[in-house]
């Protein structure tokens, strides 16, 4: 007698889609799956006919959601708000920082470390250090005054204090010490990530050879080509060519057409090998809130949530309406990817499940529906509306 049985739904398994299948769960793990559940016995049975059973979504780049703020929130508010991710089908996240004075960033990461001990702390896989080692020209929302070069002292400070919770570090390959930083991170088991950069092909290639193997929000803050100053209209290859050329490098895209024009989704799907394309939200506090919600940040700035992006509200017309960040949630991002790239359901879902799991090196445990794996599952309809979310076999969200 198993703990739980989900039956009748379209099940996206590691080995293809079962049009009408079942998944049995026991002790928090997937213990059986297939097409005939007539002899399967379980204490709790869920008829999910007409719905899709997907692996739980993994968002490896998010700064917050709803009223949860990984950048400014305290341990308690983050811990109590993590459940918002579950309501959008997300069962694992990597919390992203933004550029701040390094001691403040380190203190924030310490708070995030404590969150891992909380009720839903298992959702939090670790921390993505985004900034301060970024290109000034490609900094996006990162304040110029906090940007730095990766000095050996700063890197030693960060790794010494919070290296145990860092899983990814984004930096610009053209900065001094970038190759050394890449090797240092790789040796610590932290993934070196290229991003917010105007690196040349050669600079990008050097850090790839040194162990960099992922790109932060490609096409946002990654300058592709430059004109050769000596030869009219001759283009020089840049970071884009290098990260597309090397198959070891995975690429992430924000699932939002304002940040990533739709043709890029199909393009990356076509040119990058299986497992090397990842969808993220890069979402901020406010993501997932109802259309038109107005929020006031701690510094007094007002923003509005609209069409899954977050825009400024200001008396000054030059500032009013400006984009401050992404407000998309993973389920909406995946639906858009499927539409924009024109790809089958299971290929789109892979971008938000097994692919990030394998980039993060947690694919033996989570990321797909396979016997023996942790039962992190999400039940969605054809429009990716979340009906149920299961975390390690426990029902943690259901649509009211
Ligand atoms: Zn960024
Ligand atoms: Zn970010």
What this model shows, in words?
The protein is α/β, with parallel strands linked by helices and 400 residues long. It folds into 2 domains: 72 residues, Urease, subunit C, domain 1 (Roll), CATH 2.30.40; 310 residues, Metal-dependent hydrolases (TIM Barrel, Alpha-Beta Barrel). The strands form 5 sheets. Strands 1, 2, 3, 4, 5, 22, 23 and 24 form an 8-stranded mixed beta sheet that branches. Strand 16, helix 8 and strand 17 form a beta-alpha-beta unit. It binds zinc ion (ZN) (2 copies). One zinc ion (ZN) binds next to loops.
Protein traits:
eight-stranded parallel sheet, alpha/beta, TIM Barrel, Urease, subunit C, domain 1, 400 residues, binds zinc ion, eight-stranded mixed sheet, globular, 2 domains, 24 strands
Question: What's the helix and strand layout?
Answer:
Elements: E1 2-13, E2 16-26, E3 29-34, E4 42-47, E5 52-55, E6 57-62, E7 64-65, E8 68-69, H1 75-81, H2 83-87, E9 90-96, H3 102-115, E10 124-130, H4 152-162, E11 166-171, H5 178-187, E12 191-194, H6 201-209, E13 214-215, E14 226-227, E15 235-236, H7 239-245, E16 250-254, H8 263-271, E17 277-280, E18 294-296, E19 302-306, E20 309-313, E21 323-326, H9 330-341, H10 345-351, H11 354-360, E22 377-380, E23 386-391, E24 394-398
Parallel strand pairs: 1-4, 1-5, 6-9, 9-10, 10-11, 11-12, 12-13, 13-16, 16-17
Antiparallel strand pairs: 1-2, 2-3, 5-22, 7-8, 14-15, 18-19, 19-20, 20-21, 22-23, 23-24
Number of domains: 2
Please give the alpha-carbon distance between the first and last residues.
28 Å
**Approximately how much beta-strand content do the residues carry?**
25-35%
The hetero molecules present are: zinc ion
**Pairing-aware structural class of the strands and helices?**
alpha/beta
Could you give the count of β-strands? 24
Helix percentage: 10-25%
